[in-house]
């Protein structure tokens, strides 16, 4: 009997992938903190995850919901909307959420391993 990892891991693998993509978006924001005219972006995790769960094949592209542009609390004169404190806080929270998703996947894989080996 074969194991369908998509079913075995549920939405955890999708959540991990979306957290990784959000990490890339937030890192780009931080890297462009001093770039004039750069517009900070972010992913709405809940809506992208919901779209993924609602999709027929379970894997829509991010272009469907795409990165959202962030509205700054204090706009800068050069048009850059990156606020480093906001970005660092979002990056830190996302890293924590990524670690939680990874831990959950590891627990599921350990459970599968125990079931396979008869422990």
From TrEMBL:
<dbReference type="GO" id="GO:0071978">
    <property type="term" value="P:bacterial-type flagellum-dependent swarming motility"/>
</dbReference>
<comment type="similarity">
    <text>Belongs to the flagella basal body rod proteins family.</text>
</comment>
<dbReference type="Pfam" id="PF00460">
    <property type="entry name" value="Flg_bb_rod"/>
</dbReference>
<feature type="domain" description="Flagellar basal body rod protein N-terminal">
    <location>
        <begin position="11"/>
        <end position="39"/>
    </location>
</feature>
<keyword id="KW-0282">Flagellum</keyword>
<dbReference type="InterPro" id="IPR019776">
    <property type="entry name" value="Flagellar_basal_body_rod_CS"/>
</dbReference>
<dbReference type="InterPro" id="IPR001444">
    <property type="entry name" value="Flag_bb_rod_N"/>
</dbReference>
<keyword id="KW-0975">Bacterial flagellum</keyword>
<dbReference type="GO" id="GO:0030694">
    <property type="term" value="C:bacterial-type flagellum basal body, rod"/>
</dbReference>
<dbReference type="InterPro" id="IPR006300">
    <property type="entry name" value="FlgB"/>
</dbReference>
<comment type="subunit">
    <text>The basal body constitutes a major portion of the flagellar organelle and consists of a number of rings mounted on a central rod.</text>
</comment>
<keyword id="KW-0969">Cilium</keyword>
<comment type="function">
    <text>Structural component of flagellum, the bacterial motility apparatus. Part of the rod structure of flagellar basal body.</text>
</comment>
<keyword id="KW-0966">Cell projection</keyword>
<protein>
    <recommendedName>
        <fullName>Flagellar basal body rod protein FlgB</fullName>
    </recommendedName>
</protein>
């Amino acid at each position: 009997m074969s194991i369908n990892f998509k079913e075995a891991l549920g939405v955890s693998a999708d959540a991990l992938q979306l957290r990784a993509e959000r990490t890339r978006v937030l890192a780009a924001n931080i890297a462009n903190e001093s770039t004039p005219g750069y517009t900070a972006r972010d992913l709405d995790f809940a809506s992208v995850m919901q779209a993924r769960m609602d999709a027929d094949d379970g894997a829509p592209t991010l272009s469907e919901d795409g990165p959202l542009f962030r509205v700054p609390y204090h706009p800068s004169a050069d048009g850059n909307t990156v606020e480093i404190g906001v970005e660092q806080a979002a990056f830190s929270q996302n890293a924590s959420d990524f670690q939680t998703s990874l831990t959950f996947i590891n627990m599921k894989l350990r459970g599968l391993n125990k079931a396979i080996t008869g422990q």
